[in-house]
Task: structure prediction
Amino acid sequence: MSVIRVEDADGVVHDLEPVEGWRLMEILRDYGMGMEGCCGGSVTCAACHIILDPQWADKVPPPREDELDKLDELPFLHDTSRLSCQIIWSDELDGLKLTLVKEA
Result:
């Protein structure tokens, strides 16, 4: 069984069992982690902003130009900020750690 370790806005860590081929945004949404998936992965809203654990940042496929452009529109970023709608789950990511961005 693969797992994603998600730290929520209250600092509580949740272990989620992901589904191969799903977007991280979909997995987080379906587990009720406060992820709406407003744009369905079309990179138009950035509501699925997450922070990858630094140890995982280089293990996830790099962002495309449209994701980088959308991230640049956000009021604050971290070095490992990503849009969860642009990361497709594969079992190679087993143990991935991320933090949900706290609302400003």
About this structure: The radius of gyration is 12 Å. Helices lie at 24-30, 65-71. The chain has two helices and five strands.
